Amino acid sequence: HLIFKMRDNVTLDNSPEVTVPAGHLFVLGDNRDNSADSRVPLRSGGVGLLPIDNLIGRADAVLGSWDLGIRGQPVYTWLSGFRLGRFFTAVH
Q1: Are 31 and 67 in the same domain?
Q2: Contact (CB, 8 A) for 78 and 70
Q3: In this structure, which long-range contacts are made by residues 31-37, counting pairs with CB atoms below 8 Å and at least 24 apart in sequence?
Q4: Do 1 and 24 fall within a single domain?
Q5: What is the pLDDT of residues 43-62, one digit of tens each?
Q6: Maximum distance among all alpha carbons in the chain?
């Protein structure tokens, strides 16, 4: 897959190795350069390591998907960026 890099040398590009303690989860967002996920500590606005008891559900379906590469194109072409084949598909 393509990686759409917003900028270089972002703090999240080279995250250190993390040991996840028992009873916790390390979660990643889907926006590599701008996700407030487990790579970002709570004090910096991230979620840090999540206690497993905070997990209340699971992902069963993709509700929508859009190609970020289309963002540099004129607005009237943006509808072509929707990945219709992924709408309402099951997560395996």
Answers
A1: no
A2: yes
A3: 32/3, 32/5, 33/5, 33/6, 33/7, 34/6
A4: yes
A5: 988 889 999 999 898 889 98
A6: 49
